[in-house]
């Protein structure tokens, strides 16, 4: 099997265009000089869980998956993953999107961008993504933070920066809170305890 000498590509994610991802994979093969008989293995190694699960639906046994050629497999996956609905239906899916439980705001933006690629929004794409983002966010405090910006000047790029900063601050706050709890446990206290009650001779 060929050795990987160039950076790997991102795994295929649900909602992406498979044809585009395969084109990137082809460049990866070329740079790494991957032999034809190794391409299927490389695709599964780089493609991630979702792509492999879709291939298993087409070829449910290990024997069938081993026997199918790389070219045939790619064609079958393209037919399965790149089925296109009408633009009207794609726009309906876009306008119905809401941030899901466990989905970060950054991932929600990524999901909106992927869906927008099929909606033919033209020059209005970023503005419509921003509008849907403001409606679909589940964090009301973050939503309020974005709405305090000048709506005439706020761009999708600026919103992404605000969200990235917000999520980073939330991560740091959570980490600090966890560290404080560990410190309290080390001293035999718990959050809410009165320090004076555990110190019979407080300094006067």
UniProtKB/TrEMBL annotation:
Q: Which domain of life is it from?
A: Eukaryota
Q: Which PANTHER family match?
A: ANK_REP_REGION DOMAIN-CONTAINING PROTEIN-RELATED (PTHR33198), RETROTRANSPOSON GAG DOMAIN-CONTAINING PROTEIN (PTHR33198:SF20)
The protein depicted here goes by the name AAEL001226-PA
